[in-house]
Design a protein that fits this description.
By secondary structure, the protein is of the alpha/beta class. It has two domains: about 1-30 and about 105-199, Rossmann fold (3-Layer(aba) Sandwich); about 30-100, P-loop containing nucleotide triphosphate hydrolases (Rossmann fold, 3-Layer(aba) Sandwich). It is built from nine helices and seven strands; from the N terminus they run βαβααββααββαααβα. It has helices spanning about 15-25, 30-40, 45-55, 65-75, 75-100, 135-145, 150-155, 160-165, 180-199; strands at about 5-10, 30, 60, 65, 105-110, 125-130, 170-175. Helix 2 packs across helix 5 (about 75-100). The protein is globular. About 25% of the residues are buried.
Length: about 200
């Protein structure tokens, strides 16, 4: 079984960019957000639970109306917590099955809500990607065409970034002052050594 490494960071921190660098180093990466989007359409138990909790009309045929679901959950924290409680267990299970199929010395699970979902408990180490709030806001506004208020609302749904980084075993700084690639290359060597000792 490969060493299991979590990769997390707040919205706009650049964790997906860091994940892509690891992929270039031939490290398998599991993207939890992409997996949950797939499970919304393939996991029959999850689909039934979502329809039961949020209404049959959040699906048009077999396609989830993501905008409709977002308008429900982002307006009500209780409903967002409910959605997460439904989506996280099948995603964690899917990640574990994926991990068991990998042959690399270590694998990465990239997820924004690694600690919030409880999935950090099943990992060997966690890497955090840190960027200051003003940069994160700017990046998300440019990337998604979001308003500043939209981005702040989404940031407020996640645990405080400073607390999150303290929970991580390693931190990569993506503040546009330190180069990211050398940090990833150095960490890659550390993780390979840890994986070797794990055998």
């Amino acid at each position: 079984m490969p060493l299991k490494i979590g990769l997390t960071g707040g919205i706009g921190s650049g964790k997906s960019t860091v994940a892509k660098i690891f992929e270039l180093l031939e490290v398998p990466v599991y993207y939890a957000d992409a997996a949950s989007k797939r499970l919304y359409h393939t996991d029959k138990v999850l689909i039934a639970a979502l329809k039961h909790q949020f209404g049959e009309d959040i699906y048009a045929g077999d396609q989830l109306d993501r905008d409709k679901l977002a308008s429900i959950v982002f307006a009500d924290k209780t409903k967002l917590d409910l959605l997460n409680s439904l989506v996280h267990p099948p995603t964690i299970r899917d990640a574990e099955e994926w991990c068991a199929r990998q042959q690399a010395p270590y694998v990465i699970k990239e997820a924004a809500l690694l600690f919030e979902s409880g999935s950090a408990a099943g990992l060997d180490y966690v890497v955090g990607v840190f960027a200051p709030p003003h940069l994160r806001i700017k990046r998300v506004m440019e990337r998604d065409g979001s308003t500043r208020d939209d981005v702040l609302r989404r940031m407020n749904q996640q645990i405080d970034e400073n607390i999150k980084m303290k929970l991580c075993d390693f931190v990569i700084s993506n503040n546009e002052q330190e180069l990211v690639i050398p940090q990833v290359l150095a960490l890659h060597q550390v993780l390979l050594r840890l994986a070797k000792h794990n055998d």
